Amino acid sequence: MTAQAQPRPDARWVRPKFPADSVLQREIARRVDEYFERSGLSPRDSPQMYLKTAMLLTWFVGSYALLVFVVSSVWLAIPLSLSLALAVAGIGFGIQHDANHGAYSKRPAVNRLLGSTLDLLGASSYIWHWKHNHFHHTYPNMSGADADIELGPLGRLAPSQRRRGVHRFQQFYLWVLYGFLYVKWHLVDDIRDVTQGRVAQNRFPRPRGWRLAQLCAGKVAFFAWALVIPMILHTWWHVLLFYACSSIVVGVTLSVVFQMAHCIEEASFPVPVAGSQRVESGWVVHQLSTTADFARGNWLLTWYLGGLNFQVEHHLFPRVCHVHYPALSKVVEKACSDLGAPYVAHRGAFGALASHWRFLRRMGQPG
Fold this sequence. Notes:
Elements: H1 23-39, H2 47-70, H3 74-100, H4 108-115, H5 117-120, H6 125-138, H7 170-178, H8 181-196, E1 198-199, E2 202-203, H9 210-233, H10 236-262, H11 283-290, E3 292-294, H12 299-304, H13 311-316, H14 325-339, E4 344-346, H15 349-363
Parallel strand pairs: 3-4
Antiparallel strand pairs: 1-2
Helix pairs in contact: 1-14, 2-3, 3-4, 3-10, 7-10, 9-10, 10-15
């Protein structure tokens, strides 16, 4: 098992270049290999993962069936709507994320099948593959290359981005805007990215044939179960209201988890050396300096977030199933300590949240 190297860039794309990490990259990979050899565990195809998948899908189907086909009282619909929203986010964290990284199973067909759960949730797994796997994972926190820190004029998430007067209040209002992430994903982001053939400043091949059919079918399937079927059984404006509220919960949940791992005071936001596309630090050091763990001792949160509170381990070994991240974090942290490499971890989730709030405030201030 080796640390995931950056994808080979297309000559048409303007992408930063990393020098070799050599010693650090090899040592971390060696120690992780030793862990799997010593434990006898497989990096993928974990029985825990299959059980977890069944639990998350049962949670989703049960919440949806009760909300749409059984409950008629608004007071019962509210908690079920919340439950459905959390189940949707849980599938995003705990199933599709591993599957679309190829970390769920050694069998590509299994990864494709479970990765398609993202399409059923209204977002394209094809676009995700490029936006997340290639561009975010290679260039985290690099403005212009990592679309996850590009909020346009509404927010400033990197020192290199232009500061506007409204940003002095972003530590207050961005939490509200986070709620629109999921709806924007459904209605804007995928369509815009396919039309432009570009994510941030990175170009990617537009989907064709089966890939395009899967994207379109996913959108149709999502709006069918999320809006059309409920509107057959319930008042249309009730359905739209609950869709909006559930989407806000999903959007805030997804956004905040990402922000606690990358947009915090302790993270760096590297830029290429002036006049070139060369990055000063190697790829592994770049991942370590732009990414942080949090709440590593909270097993329930780890289960629900699909190990995404172990972002350092995920960025270094994205093709390893997340059930191994708690154990790997000890291996990686020790290697970083021995070799003098950075390693950031917040003890709890609230500490990471507070750091994100302070980061937003600092990014909004002049100078």
